[in-house]
Amino acid sequence: MSVNMSKGERVSLVKSSGQGLTQVRMGLGWDAMKKKGFFGSRSQSIDLDASCLLFDGGGKLVDQVWFQQLQSKDGSVLHTGDNRTGAGDGDDESIRVDLSRVPPQVQSLVFTVNSFTGQDFSQIENAFCRIIDESTETESARYELTGSGTHNAQVMAKVTRDGAGWAMTAIGAAATGRTFVDLLPVIAPLL
Questions:
Q1: pLDDT per residue over 34-69, tens digit each?
Q2: DSSP string, 106-144
């Protein structure tokens, strides 16, 4: 059963059997709003980029997965590829995480999205991020990236160690930047 999350809400990542999830996928989806013109509307391409940043318990960035590095150094996190338009239904970009292989020093995985092409969120609709249990292909949690505005990036969610398992917190912090590097000052106080 999927949980529709609100900003700031936290959920444990467990299967319906009560066991913790180990293989998850963070899916990001979006549509570009049609541009209205004198001769009608036309579609536009918006290149949103999903990133996963791995932090230790002290808030130090230890690895990153994004369109220029599609896999973490230890192989536990894998970006499936860059979608440069948002065309199509469902997840436009996905990041797979084997939570059982994430190194013990990594305490938080932070997922971000930014508009590499620079358009702001007022030109994006139907944006969401979600966690899918890879073993069953069922959605565990979904966070709608609402609140379009003049920001062109957002810290979507973080997944943190929670006892023997993991938990997801919907963040939804608006930011500005073309890559995850620009978002680090916004992420630091959220760890």
A1: 666 566 565 667 778 889 999 999 999 999 999 999
A2: EEEEEEEEEETT---GGGEEEEEEEEEETTTTEEEEEEE
